[in-house]
């Protein structure tokens, strides 16, 4: 409730006592979304006001002193520097107050949560604003900010006890408190008495700072649980809120995000590993390709032409075996196919074992990271892991990319959706040092490993991305698929080529199994 009308009323009254006839000596920004104002009071004391107006958290803070950085700071609202504060005005039923300076300057503090801003006016006309992204704030008319409302018993009766029209500034917390007090079940007179008692409480409040699951918050109402701060000074209350927001609220928020991130990574890797082990069990239970080929060659005389399967004596196990055949091939050619699969099987088995070992190691890493974060008691212990959150939580950025997006061991991989989308991906979005992949000799998606830092892409990342290229191609049901690997700088397209077709001037080919998406 630190941006609630009733809190801002008390704050504006306190600022009036502190700032009347003070001069604005400094006004600058050295951090994004942060404006610092330094005043000199009549007794010579400094008074600092730090305005943090970010989209996630907006709050005013009042440090005892402030040291301006020698670099990366910029003066703002220079026209009002050295001007004297003549009045602090609170706007009726509005989450806004203003500082009036000599020279008909007005600095409006619009405390609208994630749309908070500071706007300069002169002679009632807009001059400039702090948060330039909020362009509509240039249309604010100061005279229209006051909202006088009839909050009498007669008006309450006329609205049949619906307080929303009379008290639009109550906010979610006050409304929830009214429900807790049994407002909905009270008769009209009882409702009015509840409203008047509550109004009296929030107009002469005690300030509380609490911590709950979704963060640290300031309240004008006493709640269950121990408060982090209790007091009557709005400046102290905001300083406490700011302090606890970053020392406790942000720490716990990021800690929980990281724990969830590492838990999801563990679960995802375990599912992948289980899938690999299931594949291994199927391989172990099946008859080796070389033995099937030998059985076919030993019984060529028993195999009719144009059949899709045949039962043959299995001299390895002293039984019979049902062998699948390609009806368009002869018995000898079918045997050759099985011999070829047998040669690939050894490579496939080695690759499978490598993937199993790698996934087991990944699970250990995720478990260790989860435990490290779980044991953390300070924000600095999370510092090494914080960059992972930007990759995990930037869903908006992901949605804006018109391709399938995958995270492969921390590397972003884009996959084209169709032929035209492949062209868009390769020719517009892909950069010179990105890694480009495509299943060889068949139609399929273009796959790109993003490499903006121009690092050496790990072999395991390339193999997993190649598995994606194989999956999103006509070879997705084959056991192994040849995949072209190149750098974007070796990819070009001429006007005669169809959508999705490119020329690869330099390539490398690896054999990988298609990725499993189930």
From TrEMBL:
InterPro entries, per the entry: NFACT_RNA-bd, RQC_Subunit_NEMF
Record keywords: Coiled coil
Pfam families, alphabetized: NFACT-R_1 (PF05670), NFACT_N (PF05833)
Record keyword Coiled coil present: yes
Keyword Coiled coil appears in the UniProt entry: yes
Residue ranges constituting the NFACT RNA-binding domain according to the UniProt record: 407-504
Highest taxon of the lineage: Bacteria
Coiled coil: 335-369
Protein name, as recorded: DUF814 domain-containing protein
Organism this protein belongs to: Aquirufa ecclesiirivi
């Amino acid at each position: 409730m630190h941006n609630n009308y009733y809190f801002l009323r008390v704050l504006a009254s306190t600022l009036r006592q502190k700032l009347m006839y003070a001069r604005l000596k400094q006004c600058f920004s050295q951090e994004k979304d942060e404006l610092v104002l330094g005043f000199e009071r009549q007794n010579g004391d400094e008074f600092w006001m730090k305005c943090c107006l970010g989209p996630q958290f907006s709050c005013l803070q009042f440090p005892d002193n402030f040291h301006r950085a020698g670099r990366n700071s910029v003066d703002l609202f220079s026209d009002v520097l050295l001007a004297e504060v003549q009045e602090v005005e609170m706007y009726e039923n509005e989450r806004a107050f203003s500082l009036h300076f000599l020279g008909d300057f007005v600095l409006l503090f619009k405390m609208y949560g994630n749309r908070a801003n500071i706007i300069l006016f002169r002679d009632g006309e807009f001059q400039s604003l702090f948060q330039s992204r909020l362009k509509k704030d240039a249309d604010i008319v100061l005279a229209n900010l006051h909202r006088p409302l009839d909050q009498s018993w007669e008006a309450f009766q006329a609205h049949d006890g619906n307080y929303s029209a009379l008290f639009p500034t109550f906010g979610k917390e006050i409304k929830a408190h009214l429900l807790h007090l049994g407002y909905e079940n009270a008769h009209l007179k009882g409702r009015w008495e509840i409203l008047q008692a509550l109004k009296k409480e929030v107009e002469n409040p005690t300030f509380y700072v609490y911590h709950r699951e979704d963060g640290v918050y300031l309240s004008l109402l006493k709640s269950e649980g121990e408060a982090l701060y209790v007091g009557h000074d709005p400046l102290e209350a905001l300083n406490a809120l700011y302090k606890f927001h970053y020392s406790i609220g942000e720490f716990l928020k990021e800690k929980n995000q990281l724990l969830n991130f590492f838990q999801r990574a563990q679960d995802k890797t375990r599912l992948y590993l289980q899938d690999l082990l299931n594949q291994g069990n199927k391989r172990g239970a099946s008859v080796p390709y070389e033995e099937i080929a030998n059985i076919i060659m030993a019984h060529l005389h028993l195999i009719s032409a144009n059949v899709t399967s045949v039962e043959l004596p299995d001299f390895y196990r002293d039984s019979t075996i049902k062998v699948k055949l390609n009806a368009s091939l002869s018995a000898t050619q079918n045997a050759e196919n099985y011999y070829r699969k047998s040669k690939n099987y050894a490579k496939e088995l080695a690759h499978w074992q490598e993937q199993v070992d790698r996934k087991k190691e990944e699970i250990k890493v995720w478990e260790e990271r989860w435990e490290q974060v779980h044991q953390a008691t300070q924000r600095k212990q999370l510092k090494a892991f914080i960059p992972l959150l930007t990759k995990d939580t930037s869903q908006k950025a992901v949605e804006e990319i018109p391709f399938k997006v995958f995270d492969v061991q921390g590397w972003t991989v884009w996959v084209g959706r169709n032929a035209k989308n492949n062209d868009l991906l390769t020719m517009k979005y892909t950069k010179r040092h990105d890694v480009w992949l495509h299943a060889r000799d068949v139609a399929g998606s273009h796959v790109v490993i993003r490499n903006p830092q121009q690092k050496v892409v790990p072999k395991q990342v390339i193999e997993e991305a190649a598995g994606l290229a194989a999956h999103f191609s006509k070879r997705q049901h084959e056991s192994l698929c040849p995949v072209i690997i190149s750098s974007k700088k070796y990819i070009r397209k001429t006007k005669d080529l169809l959508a999705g077709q490119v020329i690869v001037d330099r390539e490398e080919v690896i054999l990988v199994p298609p990725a499993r998406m189930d």
